[in-house]
Amino acid sequence: MLDSLKIEGIINASSEVFITAHRNIDFDALGSILGMYYVANKIGKNVHVVIDDEDYSKEMKRALSTIKKLDIIPEKYNDIKDKIDNKSLLIVTDVNVGKRLQNIKLLDIKNKLVIDHHIETKDSIDTIYKYIDITSSSACEIVLKLINSLNIYIPSEIATIMLAGIYIDTNGFSLKTTKDTHESAVLLYQFGADTNESQYLLKQNFNEYKRIQKLVLSTEFYDNIAITIGDGKHLSTDLAKSSDILLRFNNIEASFTIAKLDDDIVGISARSLGNIDVADIMSKFNGGGHRTDAATQIKGCKISDIKEELIKYLGGLR
Ligand SMILES: [Mn+2]
Predict the structure, then answer these.
(1) Beta strands 288-290 and 225-233: pairing type?
(2) How far does residue 4's CA lie from ligand 1's centre (Å)?
(3) Ligand 1 centre distance from Cα of residue 219 (Å)
(4) Measured in angstroms, how far is the CA atom of residue 176 from the centroid of ligand 1?
(5) How remote is the CA of residue 144 from the centroid of ligand 1, in Å?
(6) How far is the CA of 202 from the centre of ligand 1 (A)?
(7) Which stretches of the chain score pLDDT less than 70?
(8) How confident is the model at residue 88, as a pLDDT?
(9) The whole model's pTM is what?
(10) From the CA of 169, how far away is ligand 1's center (Å)?
(11) What span, in angstroms and rounded, lies between the C-alpha atoms of 12 and 48?
């Protein structure tokens, strides 16, 4: 259970609040940061949004210029480091692994609170309190439960950004979407979320689209399994998106996209509708995740060998 009062108490006991998320910020990360900004603000704290990313997509720039009008100006770690004291609180959303933070030095802040929907690993941050729910569609969905139970108000512009966050993490309210996800969306519309503006935030990069379509089109189908082997180097997000898309086709129960992430590193992104446990299969490659959504990175192996091994773990495929 999400302990709203405990979170309220922790924020209340702090001197100042610093909120961050993972590097290469996306809309779920930004939306959940902003939601927590209003939670901490209502409790009466001075709040700093810490983002160290150097470049942003056009869509992210659009969102950042919107929040500037609400007087929320993201700061770099260097701008805030002198403000840190013993009672400072670091709130981390949409990630729970320290090395993926906007700035790893933020971990020096003694008191930490994590709100996330990704599976925990042994590298998960030590906190005074963490709420990690892998059944939640997004970090925004969790933060909205908090906003609802603490009676916090958020401006319509923030609701729009959070709507974009949920949209992205659920692939348009299809994946990991539950009643709670839709209830979060209802709450966002009550705050005045603007679907038209969120369409601007959700605009895709055409080159990325082409890379992902190329992956999808090279898929081989084995009964109810889809396996895609990528050509050349890819971003890990390409692999994830390819596997997400493949799950939508007739008969497919699980999808695997395999491609080079670097000269020496091969990534696999795996998805399932739930009848096949892809976390179990990825664990055989030292990866992890959950039953329907898992991944791994393998060093120094040939893609063809990895594919062969995968097919073996899947019990041989026709
Ligand atoms: Mn997320």
Answers:
(1) unpaired
(2) 20
(3) 26
(4) 11
(5) 13
(6) 15
(7) 317-318
(8) 98
(9) 0.88
(10) 6
(11) 15
Distance from residue 135's CA to the centre of ligand 1 (Å): 12
Angstrom distance (rounded) from CA 125 to CA 118: 13
DSSP annotation of 205: P
Q: 204 CA to middle of ligand 1, Å?
A: 17
Distance CA 280, CA 189 (A): 38
Give the distance (Å) from ligand 1 centre to CA of residue 145.
15
**Mind listing the domains of the chain with CATH numbers?**
4-201 (3.90.1640.10), 208-313 (3.10.310.30)
pLDDT at 317: 67
Q: What is the pLDDT of residue 175?
A: 84
- Planar angle of CA 174, 237, 104, nearest 5 degrees: 115
Cα dist from 269 to 137, 188, 242, 250, 311, whole Å? 18, 31, 8, 20, 15
User: Closest Cα to residue 301, out of 273, 266, 249?
Assistant: 266
Residue 165 CA, ligand 1 centroid: distance in Å? 7
Instruction: Give which of 84, 149, 142, 150 is closest to 117, Cα–Cα.
Output: 142
Radius of gyration of the chain (CA): 20
Query: 69 by DSSP, 3-state: which?
Result: helix
The CA distance from 13 to 33, in Å, is: 19
